[in-house]
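Exercise 7. Given the components listed, write out the predicted structure of the assembled complex. Treat all entries as one system.
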Amino acid sequence: MATVELDDIHKRFGAEEVIKGVSLTVADGEFIVIVGPSGCGKSTLLRMVAGLETITSGELRINGLRANEKEPMDRDIAMVFQNYALYPHMSVAQNMGYGLKIAGLPRDAIAAKVAEAAKLLQLKDLLDRKPRQLSGGQRQRVAMGRAIVRDPAVFLFDEPLSNLDAKLRVQMRLEIRQLQADLGTTALYVTHDQVEAMTMADRMIVMNAGRAEQIGTPLDVYERPSTLFAAQFIGSPAMNVLPAEGGADGLRVAEMVLPNPAAITGPVMVGLRPEHLYPDPEGPIGLRVRLAEPLGANTLLHGTLASGEAFTASLAGVHGIGQGGTMLRLSVAPENIHLFDAASGRRLG
Amino acid sequence: MEKRVTFRGWFLPLCLIAPQIVISAVFFFFPAGQAVWQSLFIPDPFGLSSQFVGLGNFKYLLGDPYYRASFVTTAIFSTLVTLASMIPALFLAVLADRLVKSAGVYRTLLIWPYAVAPAVAGVLWMFMFNTRVGVVAWYLGQLGYDWNHVLDGTEAMGLVVVASSWGRISYNFLFFFAALQAVPRSIIEAAAIDGARFWRRFFTIVLPLLSPTTFFLLVVNIVYAFFETFGVIHTITAGGPQQATTILVYKVFSDGFVGQDLGSSAAQSVILLGVVGLLTVLQFKYIEKRVHY
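Answer.
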C-alpha cells in the first residue's frame, strides 16, 4: 500500500532528453496506465520508478519518501516484464519464492506464501515445472505470482500482455485488473495498446515524445482530449482531424460548414470521432466510400471527402454500401465536435 | 523441427563425409592404431628388431613408482591449471561485463596473451623467473625469498602452472564474456528487484545460466592441461626437478624420444588415451546433468 509521486522527472541519455518533465501523483491503490507510441519514453519512466534507470532530475517519492537514490531492492516494488524474465533454471515454485528466500524467510513460510499465490493464479499443478515447459499465458501468471508473493507496495507492469495472443490478452487483462483490485496494491502499467489503457486504468497518462500529453480517467481522455495527440491516440478507429477556419456562420472545413460550438474564430483543427457520425440526408459531411469493413455490430466506412481528405465513419448496424464510390451524407452533434489550436494542438473550448 | 536431407544412393553422401574421414584416419586412427600395436613390443636400442611382449609394457608401467608418481603430478597439475585459468577468466569477464565505456579496448587487451604460442610463453616465464637473470626472481630475492624452481619441485610446479594458465585465461575470458553478454538483462533486473545484490545475483542467477559455457570450458581446459602444456613444460623445467613436473604426456615424450624406450612410450600413450576418454565420458555423464541449457 503506497502512494507514488513523480515531481518534474527528467531523463537524459547523453545529449538526448527522453523524459522532459513528468509530474504525477498516484493515490494508494490506484491503477495508473502509461500509454503511448513506441519511443515515447513510457518504459523509461517505469524503469526510473523501478530504480533500473537513474533519474536525471526531479524527485520520485514512494510513500512520501524520496526514492531517487534507492536501489531497486530497497523500494518495495515488484515488476512484471514484457518477456516475463523468469529464471530459466528454477522451477515455478523457486521462481516465485526467490525474493522471499533472499529476504531470509523460513522455508515453510515461503512454501505457504507460494502455495497461496499459486492457488490465486491457478498454478498449483505447475509448481515443479521449469519455465520452458509452460505456455505463454502460464509464464505470464508465474511472473505475476512472483510479483504478488512479496506483497510489495507498488506493482510495475512493463507491457506484460504484448507477447500473448489476442484472446489470451483479453482474458489476462481482466485477471490482472481483478487481482490488483482484490489486493488493493498501487500499480503502474505501461502499454502501447489504447484498448488496454481504456479498459484497465483508473487514470491514464498519455505520453508523447517524453511529455505527458494528458493525465485523466479513460472517459475524461476520450470525451475531452486535451491535445490533438491524445485525441488521435485514444479511440479506435482514430479520430478524423481536418483543418478548418472558424467564423460567425460556423466552422468552414473546405466547402463544408459545421456548427461552431464555442464560437471560435481563426484557423483551428476539427476532430470528429468516427463513431459520433450518423447518416443524415441533410448532413453537412459528404463521404465518398471507398471501402466498407462490416464488423457485425457496426460498420467502418473508409473514404474521402470532396476536398480529398481521408475520412472514416463508424456506423451502427450493417450497411450494405458497395466498395466503389457511393456518396453518403453524414452529420455530427455539436457537442461531439472537438476543436484544437492549429499551431499548438491544445484543446479549445 | 529437425530438418533432414535424404539422399538417393551412396555416392554423394560418401563424397561429402570423405574429407573428415580421411583426416581422422590419417591423423588419428592410423597413429593411434600404431601406438596400440607398438605397445605390445619391446624394440632393441638400435630399432632394428622388436620382440613381442604382449601386455608386458603395461604390466611394467603399472608397477613403476615413477609412472604412478606421474599420474599424481598430472592430476595436481591439470586441476591447478584448470582452476587457475578459469576462475581469473570468469572474474575478469564479470568486470568487463560491468564496464560500459571502453569495454572493447579492455577486451582486446585481455585477448592478446592467447596469441602467444605456449612454447614462447614458456620461454617468457622462464626468463622472468630465471634464478640468475630473472626480474621476478631478483625482486623476490630483494624481499628475502630465495626463488629456485630448478631445485624446488613445488616452485617448479607453481611456475609451470602459472605459465600454462596465463595465455589460457584469455581464451576462457572470451567464452565467459560472450556468455555473460548473452544473459538476458531483464532476468538480472528481475533478480535485483527481487532483492538480490550483485554477488548474490551472480551466484544464484548468473553462474547457473553460465553452466553450459563453464562445462564446455572445463572439458576443453582439462584436455589442454593434459596435452597442450607440453611446450611450456619442455621449455621451463623439462619435467624436473626430480620429475616434479613430469606430467603423463611429457613422460611419453621423454621415455620415448629421450630414453628411446618406444614400447613403453607407446603403452603410455595408449593409457593416456584411455584416461582422457574416460574423463570426458565421466564429465558428460555426471556434470552435464547439472547443466541447464
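Discussion: Chain A has eight helices and 21 strands. Helices of chain A lie at 42-50, 92-102, 107-120, 136-149, 166-183, 194-200, 218-223, 228-233.
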